[in-house]
Design a protein that fits this description.
- The structure is a homodimer.
- By secondary structure, chain A is of the alpha+beta class.
- Chain A folds into two domains: about 5-40; about 40-105 and about 125-170, Nucleoside Triphosphate Pyrophosphohydrolase (Alpha-Beta Complex).
- Chain A is about 20% helix and about 50% strand.
- In chain A, the strands form two sheets. In chain A, strands 4, 5, 6, 7, 8, 9 and 10 form a seven-stranded mixed beta sheet that branches.
- In chain A, helix 2 (about 145-150) packs across helix 3.
- The radius of gyration of chain A is 18 Å and the shape is elongated.
- Chains A, B: Keywords: Hydrolase.
- Chains A, B: It comes from Thermoproteota archaeon.
């Protein structure tokens, strides 16, 4: 256990906040912890028969285009399931007849509070994409075995996407 | 593509920095991107016959104890392979006769530059753990099938750990 002694808000932005916390360790010593505070997010493993829906978009943090499963940040107080339906429609144009939660995970538990709720969506119907003003997203339907190959050769290098695809191979078969 | 227009350092800490960037979007509009800057890290999937080495430690960002594979942040300019050997020894007390890189991945590419380099370590020999002053880590050797079960029931909820265990099931068999 680490007992919180002091907490200072050192940055407050639109997407994230940063806290500098002081904690008391089990040996009684004091240590500092930098913590990125994030509202949490959803990611959606959308299955179209034996294909998976992947999106491709430019990511400024990586400085390149990335392959990802659809995902998005929770609005304040938003239910993760509603968020998953909303993001799936906005980013890909698909609605799912069946959508359920698989697991949740911390993306970087050493310093970040973000939890991603991973959903699996099935029985898809294509409507039209409704991206936000600052999103430019291409949508692809990729055979599952091809997606697995893209993990092995590291063409896919996004953590939530790797988890989604590998979960499907392990859990659903 | 997003063209960088302006970059402001809004927080500079020991582990992370935060930049507030302005970028020009493909439609010519300007948007802001909050970016957590992180040096990168390593994580090690250490195999002990049909067992995997897991550690358990309190994580302040989550407010609880977590199951994880051994991992750690790169020192400035450190080679990921050397870092992986160092962290494996420090956190678990094991040295590996064989250690090689599997893949790398971004933990939260929407806002964070952190890349984790995932290594697989085999032919382990147990020496003694050398944790840092602020680390309190318990080490366990867990059967692979048990670890997979802990992912499915969400007892394991750390992204790099889920990726490591699932990669092993998919890639190595």
């Amino acid at each position: 256990m680490e007992e919180l002694i002091k907490s200072e808000l050192v940055y407050s932005g639109k997407l994230i906040k940063v806290r500098l916390d002081e904690v008391k360790l089990p040996n009684g010593k004091i240590s500092k912890r930098e913590i990125v505070v994030h509202r949490g997010a959803v990611a959606i493993l959308a299955l179209d028969n034996n294909n998976i829906i992947l999106i491709r978009q430019y990511r400024h943090a990586a400085g390149k285009f990335m392959w990802e499963i659809p995902a998005g940040t929770l609005e304040e107080g938003e239910d993760p399931l509603e968020c998953a339906k909303r993001e799936l429609l906005e980013e890909t144009g698909y609605v799912a007849n069946k959508i359920e939660k698989l697991i949740q995970f911390y993306v970087a538990v050493g310093y970040c509070t973000e939890i991603i709720h991973l959903f699996i969506a099935r029985e898809l119907k294509k409507l039209s994409q409704k991206t936000e003003e600052d999103e430019f997203i291409n949508v692809y339907s990729i055979p599952i075995d091809k997606a697995l190959e893209m993990i092995k050769n590291n063409e896919i290098e996004d953590a939530k996407t790797i988890i989604g695809i590998l979960m499907m191979k392990n859990v659903l078969r």
